[in-house]
Design a protein that fits this description.
Layout lengths: L9 E7 L7 E8 L9 E8 L6 E6 L5 E6 L2 E7 L8 E6 L4 E4 L6 H4 L3 H5 L4 H5 L5 E3 L3 E5 L5 E5 L19 E4 L8 E4 L4 E2 L5 E2 L7 H5 L14 H28 L8 H31 L6 H39 L5 H22 L2 H4 L1 E5 L7 E5 L3 H40 L5 H11 L1 H22 L11 H9 L7 H6 L3 H18 L1
Helix pairs in contact: 5-6, 5-15, 6-7, 6-8, 7-8, 7-10, 10-11, 10-12, 12-13
Main location: membrane
Protein name: G-protein coupled receptors family 1 profile domain-containing protein
GO molecular function: G protein-coupled receptor activity
């Protein structure tokens, strides 16, 4: 700056020393004039804070005396200069010591009820009585405490409007701000709680959270994968390990359950189908994860491909996950029927029913999620990062339906698995009590649980794995900050654990399945020699 560009601009580096870092801040510059007839001049700028940063830098050519930072309806006095210093590098912090307090917290109710003019006479008290206080404000004034603990008050308009001319720029009731009323060059959105994104396009409420919502902003655009954060690298490693484990688990399960002996009953058909679905589920999840990586890194920018992926990938994941859960339910129901009917259980009938049930369940699940792809669209940020996002736009009624159907596909299998475990235990216990009346009940119950543990282990583990998803489904709150998404990210990954555990849940606990599994491994070893 300067008539000959002889001065550097002022640089102000602000570090946030508070727990909740805002996404948008307003910087109010005040310039005092020696002419007492002139009011303090105020210039306001705003700036967004990137997700991975805990500080922000302002570069300004404005000569100023005071700088207030505003966010979340709070003011912080960050810079005080009695004399304007050009080309200054300023480093300051935002913490509770710099916070401006509302006058209502500093004066008693008697003084606060005075008229404005009479009340002003008492504005010297807060600075005298609170030695750490930097500033305070009321509805009309902002007051700064000087070195001698005197209050210097000046007009401060708290209702200055920076509303956008384009009212529909921000979604989900987000507030839009522009840097110039007549010819704006920058538009930013301030989102309500539970909503975020450059246009408040995402919500983090309960089960509607997707991987894009939870993790998208942790991936930095225009930066190679090797320079991404450790969180990105760790989740990528976990995803690859899940894929490898899924292929091994799925292939070995398919080779086990394709045995003619096991396919004589419906259980074998359900588990063979689920073995195939498990590989597909984790493969689609891996594709989804790395698509998100390359899209956010801006490695792929083809709009048509991004939109096609947006429509297809998420709904496929939902269908496959729910399909796997319902196939486990079919196994649980058939095992319960086998336990209750005993020798009257019709194996051939269960086999023929299973083929129709699998197709019917897949069709019904697909229909239940048909609203998802038709409600998706891609939007592109117009800020420096130029991200592309896949978002859902539901009407009020569709939002309610989506919440219901998501909870339904988790809660009902959860309940059926619990009932199945209880019914199997009770039924087998009753049969054994009838045959061994003289035995102690506790001994009989323990013996039956031990004997039929293969029927109970799978149901109990599936119940435990469903609990985190149920908790997230029924959460009334939301992910407060995209800086701390770890609880939701863990819950999201837990939902993909059941497809990885077919061998552990069903093959190893069962003598029949385990013998077939060992026989299959022996054949593989024989042919490998």
């Amino acid at each position: 700056m300067g008539s000959r560009c002889e001065y550097q601009s002022n640089k102000i580096n602000i570090n946030f020393k508070i727990n909740s870092i805002p996404t948008l801040i307003f910087a109010h510059y005040f310039i005092s004039h020696h002419d007492h007839d002139r009011r303090h001049e105020r210039i306001t700028k705003f700036k967004k804070i990137p997700l991975d940063q805990y500080s922000i830098e302002f570069i300004t050519q404005i000569p100023f005396n005071l700088l207030f930072i505003e966010f979340s309806d709070n003011y912080y006095l960050t810079v005080v200069r009695e004399k304007i210093i050009p080309s200054e590098n300023i480093a300051t912090n935002i913490n509770q010591d710099y916070k401006c307090e509302n006058i209502n917290k500093l004066l008693n109710s008697t003084i606060l009820n005075y008229t404005n003019l009479r009340r002003l006479k008492y504005y010297l008290l807060p600075c005298r009585e609170n030695l750490k206080l930097k500033c305070f404000y009321d509805d009309k004034y902002m007051c700064v405490c000087d070195k001698n603990r005197y209050s210097n008050c000046f007009d401060f308009d708290h209702n200055t409007s920076y509303d956008c001319q384009r009212n529909r720029y921000c979604g989900n009731n987000g507030k839009c701000f522009q840097d110039n009323r007549t010819c704006p060059s920058t538009l930013v959105c301030m989102c309500d709680k539970c909503y975020y994104g450059s246009r408040c396009q995402f919500n983090s409420i309960g089960f509607s959270t997707s991987l894009d919502v939870i993790f998208g902003y942790h991936i930095k655009p225009f930066i190679s994968f090797t320079k991404q954060s450790s969180a990105v690298k760790i989740t990528a490693s976990i995803t690859i390990l899940m894929l490898i484990f899924s292929i091994i688990n799925g292939v070995l399960s398919i080779l086990t359950f394709k045995s003619e002996t096991l396919l004589k009953v419906g259980c074998g058909i359900y588990l063979l189908t689920n073995s195939i679905i498990s590989i597909l589920t984790i493969t689609i999840f891996t594709i989804k994860y790395f698509q998100l990586i390359v899209f956010q890194m801006k490695s792929i920018t083809n709009t048509s491909f991004i939109h096609f992926s947006c429509i297809l990938t998420d709904v496929l994941l939902k269908i496959l996950l729910s399909f796997g859960d319902w196939l486990y339910v079919c196994v649980a129901i058939e095992r319960t029927l086998a336990a209750t009917q005993g020798i009257h259980f019709n194996q051939s009938k269960s086999k023929s029913i299973a083929k129709y049930v699998i197709g019917t369940i897949l069709l019904l699940i697909s229909i239940s999620y048909i609203h998802d792809p038709i409600s998706r669209r891609t939007i592109h940020d117009i800020d420096d990062e130029q991200r592309a996002w896949c978002i859902l736009e539901y009407s009020t009624s569709l939002k309610k339906y989506d919440k219901f159907i998501n909870i339904f596909h988790v809660l009902i299998p959860f309940i059926i698995n619990i009932l199945s475990a209880i019914c199997i235990t009770i039924q087998v216990f009753r049969i054994r009590v009838k045959t061994k009346k003289k035995s102690a009940y506790k001994k009989i119950l323990y013996a039956q649980i031990k004997q039929n543990k293969h029927l109970l282990i799978s149901s109990c583990i599936l119940i435990l794995l469903s609990i985190p998803r149920l908790i997230i489904s029924f959460l009334s709150g939301c992910m407060d900050s995209i800086r701390n998404p770890w609880l939701y990210l863990i819950g999201y990954y837990i939902s993909f654990i059941p497809p990885l555990l077919i061998i552990i849940l069903f093959i190893l606990p069962s003598k029949t399945y385990k013998q077939e599994f060992i026989s299959m491994i022996a054949k593989i070893n024989f042919f490998s020699k």
